[in-house]
Amino acid sequence: MAEPGVETRTRSSVITARAAANFDPVGRSVATARAFVRDTLQGWGYSDVVDDAVVLTSELVTNAVIHAGTSADVLCLRTEGGVRVEVSDRYPEREIPMQGTGLSLGSPDRENGRGLLLCAALASRWGVDYTPTHKQVWFQLDLPDRPVGARSAGPVIPNALLPVTDERVRVAVVQIDRTGAVSNWNEDAEHLFGYPADQVIGKPLTDFAAWPHTPGIGTGIAEALLLSRWEGSYGIRGSDGRVIPVYASHLRVRDTEGEPSTVCLLVRDDERAVIQTPQRAPATEAGAESRTVDPFEVFIGSPAPEDLDGLLQRTVERARDMLEGDSAFLLLATDDETELEVRATTGLPSARQRFARVPVEAGTGRYGSARMPAVHEDLVIVPGAVPLLNGTGMRSVVTVPLKVEGRLTGSLGVAAESAGRYSNEEALRLQFAADRIALAVESARLGELERLRRGSLSFLVEASDLLAGTLDRDQTLALMAQMTVPTLATWCAVYTIADQASDPYLSYVLHEDEERIDGLKALLSTIDPPEPVPTPGARVWTGPADAAHQAALRMSMRELGGASTPVSSGIGTTLATAAAVGGETVVLPLVARNRVIGMLTLGKPSDDHFRQEILELAEDLSRRAALALDNARLYSERMAISQSLQRSLLPPELPQVPNVEVEVIYRAAGEGNEVGGDFYDVFPIRDGAYGFAIGDVCGTGPEAAAVTGLARHALRLLAREGFSGPAVLERLNAAILDEGARSRFLTLLYGELWPQEDGSAVLKVVCAGHPLPLRLRQDGTVEAAADPQPLLGVMDDLELYEQMVTLDPGDVLLCVTDGVTERREGTRMLGDDGLVDVLTGCTGLTAGAVASRVLRAVERFAAEPASDDMAILAMRVPEPQ
């Protein structure tokens, strides 16, 4: 140890920066001097010697302002190799004990003289200089070759406010070889992620890591593993498929043979404090000249965090340390600047308070100290002055506003557990720091808002596309929930209202953890649904949280009452459900066409809050979802009506015709159509006589279906009145013409069938403009079974006639509409000849087999779906057994 006053310089003593301050002879000056030295050295990047410098400064300033009773001047000098701190007082005649003089330097048990003892123990060099009016004690602290001693320290926190862990903290140790594959996997890694070591060793870490892809950041996991040191957050996919957020510290090492590898320490993200390294500002490069220090860098440190959350968290930590508080918090203005949101805290239960909102205006229960600096010496005397600190044990607090161009953009506060800790002097110091960072925080906040707006726009565009892509009610409900969870909320429930006289019905429930869905659904089913209020915007609903807490309390009391029985799994499920819905729950009305058709309910886990931007985005989504849900309802109702009407136009089941096989295949073109312009019918006329018809109305869709219904019912009525085939069609023609502008022309093949005792069948047919019926004989020949005649619905006076056809055993009569013969593939058409070729190969087949073969031929003729209605009627007289 060098003697006092003797400087043995082994490093350059070029002074690169200086900072000075004067402190009055009062007790609080000691704390202010400590803060001055700490802030100065941290701003210079000399974090490694901050603790020793603060301790020595504290003792020397105490000697000056307490024991000597004079003011103290503190001068900090930065050199390339360390820092020199000089403390001067105005009591030079006091004798300073010297080593080797027989006088004691002091005792650690005595306050007087302890500062010199500490200088001798901690400083690289130290000494005392005298002038006629001043005595100056100085000490030199050299930067170590490598960091030693304390890097950072936090305040003492009561046990009740310490973070809660479900079990002991586990640190996964994973080693990655030069190829990126896992070479070591410890027991804690098995427990955290569910994979035994033999399942992961040898596999790339990229198979398990869920690496964040942030726009503008190109570093991937492969690049991060090659860095000498890396620290940050990502996710690991557990054995159950869910992503577990982790905080990781990577260190690149090499073994004795020079083989490189990366050692990764991983903990759960909410336990990051176990391995997280505080940011350390770099020292000034050697030989750098003295320069003006940016006040923002002095407070925040360099480099400053690039993201808003990181910047805010660094701000509250530095503010707490600057005022030696127990906690600190920062609130930012919402987008409309009418409320403040809690965005960063330290020393407080941040998970409970994050994104909690408070109004800006003053008043009862309001955040009254937002616009001006304020000091509350004892919150017990003024309860509720700072609602954020209720129930945290904090007694005194100082708050200052963040302002940009006169606008309130936020509020920064520091609190302590003891009363009377802060005065106006601390408020001014904190305001000075807040002014230095306000512009940077506002710039980062506006950047975040712009990113949120762009993300919200993309989200809403995608949501609109998805909702517009379906008219199915159940699928619309599922899409609504899946778009909100987990993007906007932790869980979601959709209530629907059938009509104004109906109560809300719980239609869909979703939670980001699938294991919580059943418990959540059971809970919501036991409570009254929210009121269907049409007022736009989100409103808070406390029903689920209250019911969950009551259920958990009852279950706990039941379990405790049966002390002889182990705790059942039921209480675990109940407590998990209570935690899942214990945060903020909001209800947004689903309003479509001026009617509330349901409610969209969004929830957060215990003590969590929604951001205002998220609620605004959810409101936009609810408007789009409501219209989509109502469209799906209208579509479903109209489809049900349409299908009911269409089914009424179809004939009932085919009658059993003695000794004749009858088969019909019908296909209506168009999605959702069961009846089109083509139709068929087979019905009994009288004993031993049966009528059959197959027709094609011009066009497709509902208009053609209307003529179809007219024709089918008129045919049955007229035939049963005893009219012949030509007379039936002539009267039907008149009925179609009577429809006026709504009339459509109709091609129709109508016939009457009489099964004979000898096994044959006699038919009388009239072919009014319809494709001719084809007769397949037993020998494979195919011929037309009727002649063409005028179609219906065009001319007033028709002269129709019927033709007699006899089907012998084994013969087939095939009747089709033009949807079969006019089937196209490009310029090719199946046509009459193609149909004849198909029918020729049907010798010996049943009527059903013939109809099926014709249908297959039509479908295979072209790749595209049929665009025209199609009907196939096959009748066959079976051969005698």
TrEMBL record:
SUPFAM superfamilies: GAF domain-like, PP2C-like, PYP-like sensor domain (PAS domain). Residues 167-203 form the PAS domain. Gene3D superfamilies: 3.30.450.40, Histidine kinase-like ATPase, C-terminal domain, PAS domain, PPM-type phosphatase domain. InterPro entries: Bact_Sigma-Reg, GAF, GAF-like_dom_sf, HATPase_C_sf, HATPase_dom, PAS, PAS-like_dom_sf, PAS_fold. Keywords: Hydrolase. NCBIfam families: sensory_box. This is SpoIIE family protein phosphatase.
